[in-house]
Amino acid sequence: MKKIIKLKVNGIEYELAVEPNRTLVDFIRKDLGLTGTKKGCSIGDCGACTVLMDGTPVFSCLVLAMEADGCGIRTIEGVADGNKLHPVQEAFVSEGAIQCGFCTPGMVMTSIALLKDNPHPSESEIRRAISGNLCRCTGYQKIVEAVKKAEEELRVKS
Ligand code: FES
Ligand code: FES
């Protein structure tokens, strides 16, 4: 039986009925139409579905929509400021850290959470933070460089 949940996604309040087995990734993609969040494996192996739940990165394929009742969710659609990309997004572009782009939304969300918790991560801390996000294209080096570049940009601004 469906249950009503209330939550904020990218600052917008939603109140919707969901099936008890509806995953958060399907809720975000199918019910809200926010298809920036990707669904790769559905079993917690790839990180493509990473979103922030009350600021913490989660694999949204492993979270039920009902578990997000009362929470604040941030997806890749809620990262840019209007037409201005987030510094992490800018760095992914400028460092060439994107090829097919399938992993990118999850990588960006994980990186944003990392830089919020640890504004000056070492390379090994960056690699550890993104270790749950798989990329089959880039070989990771450019992603690591992009996170370092974003850290520098954010340091200059702060
Ligand atoms: S789709 Fe969620 S971890 Fe792969
Ligand atoms: S850019 Fe293709 S999977 Fe990462």
Per-chain topology:
Elements: E1 3-9, E2 12-18, H1 24-31, E3 50-53, E4 56-59, E5 72-74, H2 87-94, H3 104-117, H4 123-129, H5 141-157
Parallel strand pairs: 1-5
Antiparallel strand pairs: 1-2, 3-4, 3-5
Helix pairs in contact: 2-5
The chain binds FE2/S2 (inorganic) cluster (FES) (2 copies).
Compact summary:
The chain is of the alpha+beta class. 34% of the residues lie in helices and 16% in strands.
Task: Report what the structure shows.
- By secondary structure, this protein is an alpha+beta fold.
- It folds into two domains: 75 residues, Roll (Ubiquitin-like (UB roll)); 71 residues, [2Fe-2S]-binding domain (DNA polymerase, domain 1), CATH 1.10.150.
- Helix 2 packs across helix 5.
- The structure holds FE2/S2 (inorganic) cluster (FES) (2 copies).
- One FE2/S2 (inorganic) cluster (FES) binds next to loops.
Shape: globular
Strand content: 15-25%
**Strands of the biggest beta sheet: in what spatial order?**
2-1-5-3-4
Q: Can you count the beta strands?
A: 5
CATH class of the largest domain: Alpha Beta
The CATH superfamily of the largest domain turns out to be Beta-grasp domain
